[in-house]
Structure prediction request, 515 residues.
Amino acid sequence: MNGAEAFIQTIKTCGVEVCFANPGTSEMQLVAAIDQQDGMRAILGLFEGVVTGAADGYGRMADKPAVTLLHLGPGLGNGLANLHNARRAGSPIINMVGDHATYHLHYNAPLTSDAAGVARPMSDWVRTSTSQRDLAQAGAEAFAVAQSYPGKVATVIVPADHAWNEGSAAVAVPAVPAPAQVPAATIAEAAAALRECTGPKALMLGGRALREAELIEAGRIAAATGARLIAETFSARHQRGAGRVAVEKLPYFGEQAEAYLKDFEAIVFVGTEPPVSFFAYPGKPSFLSPPGARLVRLASLREDAMQALSGLAAALDAPAEPALVQDSTSFPAEPGRINSANLGAILAELLPAGAIVSDESATSGGAAFAMCAGAAQHDWLQLTGGAIGQGLPLAVGAAVACPDRKVIALQADGSGMYTNQALWTMAREQLDVTTILLNNGSYAILNIELMRVGVQNPGPKALSMLDLKHPALDWSKMSEGMGVPASRVSTAEEFRAALAEALAHKGPRLIEVLL
Prediction:
């Protein structure tokens, strides 16, 4: 058995079933090993950012890692933005990155790079194998790291000679560390803060705290204390819809978030940290929690949210039934020209039970999140790290992880261009993804940000860098060119018909919404 075969067999035995790949010459032994491994699915992405973003979506929905296959340091570099998002999401991912044979590195061939150095900023753990026998051990260690709560990005650098040399063997499945537990004293501190506060108070939730079971515990705490429940602005996976515990959402813009939080006298954080502004702005604050408020970090992203919340509920002698259970709600969709409001209302009305929404809608889809709160139960995935180009790949990974659930990619046009190759993978794998492509012909969020940083009277050169109309993007043609049937709509009536048709169909579809 060569090193590549031992590595692939080891991670398959650990439970890794999917490889998202964009390989090159140095990875051919790994390609061959995947081919020989029963039960390992190989999915090709035409750009490394699709590969890493798909692994993120898969990890968020499967709660176990897929493995990526990337070509040397430059190939890994192409995928780093979505590894940044994945790391912020706490997603489990194993990267296997090929490298030149150890004896070839000193010749400084054109693709030579410091692959481990490229990996470190966007990985939680990096390891270069030391031999063909060590490669399988590196794979086992990577799995244990990736699977540690709630998930980590683990990267293994695979020299080509370690992959092709014979004399290796698979190794045993490693023990995965148990989630870090919150100390009793911290739970008591949080209970005291909520119990003693006579003014407005809140639980701010992120990470695994936005899963259904954890939200029930949060709802019990709300019932006991009157605390409001607030979700971090961008969540990895928020389980929501009618019958689940409802959670408010912290606004994106810093001054809005500051105003939203200003009256709270106590805030307990679970699975997230006290919020800060996404960017610095002249004359505006970076730290957004109100001065003088009692802030308690009950559990970080990497501490057991369920243990923290159930412990806090017990400390507060909370009732068995949660408060704030979401009612089924609907909104009228005004006829005529499509806009954010009637789009959101129609999506909420037609959203299938069990749907997964990959949301990279930016400015144009803002109403959809709020309007879908009382829709059928669903999972909502967001842009955790702020690096755009995540939405379409994330939908790919979610659809692979959950083939029996409808995935909806709510995608802005500008960010969609970063990783539009994901459509080809959807078509090739016949993934059940309906993409709602919001085409407003601009980087609209940056037009807003231009004003917010204080730029007055921007000229034509500045505005041209935020405009996508010259030439206009034709997403329907791009989609069909990559094998995904597409339609274009500009009215609420057209959108309703197109969405109903797409949701009734099994397989990829794209609806280009002209805003």
